[in-house]
Design a protein that fits this description.
By secondary structure, the chain is mainly α. Helix content is 69%, strand content 0%.
Length: 80
């Protein structure tokens, strides 16, 4: 899992006060940082981590779905 995204996951996992919009924006920002850095994204692992970081949070489920759909489009972003 990429380092910037990994740090975002740790931050969201530790936080118990902030809400869903903060968690979603933090993880989305982590993903964008990884993509902008040119690192490859491990698509299945990334979507799994999004779903399990805060289970049951619908916005993270949607973000995981976006990652999966983009990963299925050839040339959409660096991935493995």
């Amino acid at each position: 899992m990429p380092a910037g995204f990994e740090e975002a996951v740790r931050e969201v996992s530790r936080e118990r006060v902030r809400g869903a919009s903060w968690a979603l924006s933090t993880l989305a920002r982590g993903l964008l940082e990884e993509l902008e850095s040119g690192r490859t994204l491990e698509c299945p692992r990334t979507s799994q981590v999004l779903r399990t970081t805060l289970p049951g949070m619908g916005s993270l489920e949607v973000l995981a779905e976006v990652v999966e759909r983009l990963c299925s489009v050839p040339g959409s972003w660096p991935r493995r």
